Amino acid sequence: MNGNTTQCNVRVELRHLRYVIAAAEHHSFRRAASIVGVHQSAISRRIRDLEEELGASLFNRHSGGVELTFAGEGFLEHARRVVGQIERAASLVNAHGCGNAGIVRVGIFSSISSGFIADLMRAYEQRHTDVRLDFIEGSPREHLSAIRHFKLDIAFLTGPFAPPDCEGQHLWTERVFVVLPEADKLANLAEIAWNDLRNRHFIVSRSDPGPEIHDFLVKHLSLPGYHPSVEYCAVGRDNLMQLVSLGKGLTLTSEATTGTKFPRVVYRLLAGEALPFCAIWSPKNDNPALRRLLSLARVMARRNSLCNSSTHRAMAGP
Predict the structure, then answer these.
(1) Does the global pTM surpass 0.70?
(2) What is the pLDDT of residue 315?
(3) Domain 14-97 is found in CATH 1.10.10.10
């Protein structure tokens, strides 16, 4: 080390800085003590200790109170800056700890244009304006891996399941719709049954949720000696809908996606079919903002369940 360099090891506590700021603002150790809630002797003694540590006087004492010295004025400027930064940092950490700030990384597998998940995200953002929601599309396998490695906080997936190392909860159910050209003869039906779809050609996207739709079709349409005609297309959802409108085949979609309309394409309910959706998260994830989201999701799911039960009872009559 250069011999001209002077090293100064001074131990300064945060409370010392608060004492100096209060005394400077009120020009009195007595009034400063009243503000910070300690005895006057404590402030006087701690500031004296600090002056001895620093090797310079911060205050000129007189019968009417105290006034900053030249060195004290310089020290006060930096003390206020340090205390302000610490208070802002503490406030930010407190907001994160209360779930009122931060980030929630959300894995999605269905549309967020309408339905339960859209209502949930809208309600959450209204309640927690300082929390940022980051949405990531992907397959269930990708989402589950990301949750295990804490790259995602939560994922909303189909199926009432949760892997052994994750937690899950069923939140809502969506009906299944057949997507077909408006000129198709089945478009005249209010509901379509599986038998109506025998010997029809289907198209699905190679990207998600195409593979899941493929498996769903095979499961319900396969018969001994018969395998349904399902073609994979290397297009996204929007272009898949255009292919449907051109008569290249039918496809399936969940209820939430039917809020988006496409020219010459119609949606018809697939009778008796519904998809359960659940939230999946890691029990080791201690993100408070995630816990707030889960709490709101449970409340909204219970409310929807009660509303649906009331509707069914009303439709059933006395």
Answers:
(1) no
(2) 45
(3) yes
